[in-house]
Amino acid sequence: MTRHTDIYFFRHCGAGPPCTHLQFSDGIGACGVMVKRRLARVFPHPRSILRHAQSVPMTRPETTLLARYHQLVQVLASLARNSHGVDAIVQAVHQQAGTLFSAHSTLLALRQPGGDWLWEVYEDQRRYSQRLPFYPEGILENVLHGEALSIPDIDAYLLEYPVRFRRVMDNGKVMLNVQAEEEVAGPPTVSMLFVPLEVRGERTGVLSIQSYETHAFDDTDLEFLQLLAQHVSIALENAALREELECLTRTDMLTGLPNRRAFYHDVPRALDTARQEGKELHLVMLDVHEFKRINDSFGHQTGDEVLARVGQALRQTFAAPDAAFRLSGDEFALLVWEPEARLEALALRLTHALRAAEWPPGPGPICLQGGVAQPPSDGNIDDWLSLADSRMYHAKRRRIVGDQVDWGMDFGDITHLRPPSSETDSD
To answer: Taking a C-beta distance cutoff of 8 angstroms, is the pair 7, 66 a contact?
Structure first.
């Protein structure tokens, strides 16, 4: 099919003779280097654009080559604005895929650390997200380790090639080698393009567009999708870097625990979940018993080692849905679900973790004194912290100088949880 040219979307970028630098009339800016190079293959000199426009009939802009480049840049601009996560990237591509490719479905499949696939699929207004096993004989797997693939008719392709093909069903589940006439979620996609994605020099995924019509895509579509895939790869890398940076800003470097910023980010969500699901959620404030004495007697390096070991013990003991945070200094916070039935067991697990840690010489048994509080009726986080904090200091004040210090957590007159007698002796 011959694609006619229309210069409606372009204008000359300056006075004087025609130049090789074109700019979009909507202010998006100049074409990228790759786009200019590909334009140069079609139009060696800008004058040829004018000659071509005068020599062919004007057609609908969405069917012209230059207009498709304009649409492609729209997708790239959308990717630049929405590279906050995989879902946002797929959505940005899918929103433009209908006009750029006449596609009905967009699939982004990414390999996960465990080896399986994470699927993000948009089909019309529906969205699916699935984790699927890796099959060496699958279509995605062949594209990941091979080359781009165009399938004009999937049913004919499956008759010729014995590969695994996955299809989304009405219930959102993914089935293997289901034919198009079987019941699927909406009309079945039958023609498809697949291109591999490379992030940080490694093949990590596959981008696919699909249509309900057979023979919906041609070689030009495949070339456009390969060009788009390069920018999707960049967007994925930016999203990964953004996630890494966000993780660093929300992580305490000494203990490896989420920090105060993470606490204020996560607590509102936890409170919403507790209200919606009718679950009990308690906040526990902890600090290390006589931590100032440890710093003064053994030095700040030893104090840091103590905090690091405490953080390690808390990470081992409080896993999702519970959570542990380092707020500041030797102050830690715990979010504990359904604590009435679990707090004592968690305290004993923490005791075991503390005793098993490799401590610097000198500090002796490490006791974490704590206060427990239910959330206030208005959900004010600062009030909740203050209540748990006051109960923690009440536990500290009630301890008599010279009392035997045990490993584990001490909640004062609320509850004083101790390990079994066989484990209370000092090492």
So the answer is: yes
The residues, any chain, with a CB within 8 Å of residue 55's CB and separated by 6 or more, are none
> Which band of pLDDT confidence, cut at 50, 70 and 90, is reported for residue 46?
very low
pLDDT tens string 49-62: 333 334 334 344 44
Rounded CA separation 199/145 (Å):
14
Is 187 or 149 the better-scoring residue by pLDDT? 149
Cα Rg of the chain (Å, integer): 30
Average pLDDT over residues 92-103: 81
Q: Which two tokens stand for residue 120?
A: 């993000």
Q: Cα–Cα–Cα angle for 194, 244, 380, nearest 5°? A: 120
Mean pLDDT over 316-328 rounds to 91
From edge to edge, which strands make up the β-sheet containing 408-411? 323-328, 331-337, 281-288, 367-373, 408-411, 415-416
CB–CB of 300/306 below 8 Å? no
Query: Comparing C-alpha atoms, which of 192, 327, 318, 316 is closest to residue 262?
Result: 327
The DSSP symbol for 124 reads: T
Q: How confident is the model at residue 175 (pLDDT cuts 50, 70, 90)?
A: low
Contacts of 380 (CB under 8 A, 6+ apart): none
Q: Where are the alpha helices (DSSP H) in 199-299?
A: 219-249, 260-277, 291-298
> 3-state class of 399 per DSSP?
coil
Q: What is the pLDDT of residue 174?
A: 61
Residues 6+ apart with CB under 8 A from 165: 138, 139, 154, 158, 176, 177, 178
Mean pLDDT of 347-366: 83
CA distance 46 to 17: 10
What letter does residue 375 receive in the DSSP assignment? P
Q: Which of 302, 299, 364, 368 is nearest to 330 (CA)?
A: 368
Q: What span, in angstroms and rounded, lies between the C-alpha atoms of 307 and 366?
A: 10
Give 376's DSSP letter.
Answer: P
Report which of 73, 68, 17, 65 is spatially closest to residue 45, judged by C-alpha positions: 17
Q: Domains of the chain by range and CATH?
A: 1-62 (no CATH), 82-247 (3.30.450.40), 260-423 (3.30.70.270)
Task: Locate 3 and state its tokens.
Answer: 């694609």
Query: Is 44 or 214 the better-scoring residue by pLDDT?
Result: 214
Please give the structure tokens belonging to residue 296: 């003064």
Contact 353, 316 (CB under 8 A): yes
49 phi, psi to nearest 5 deg: -65, -45
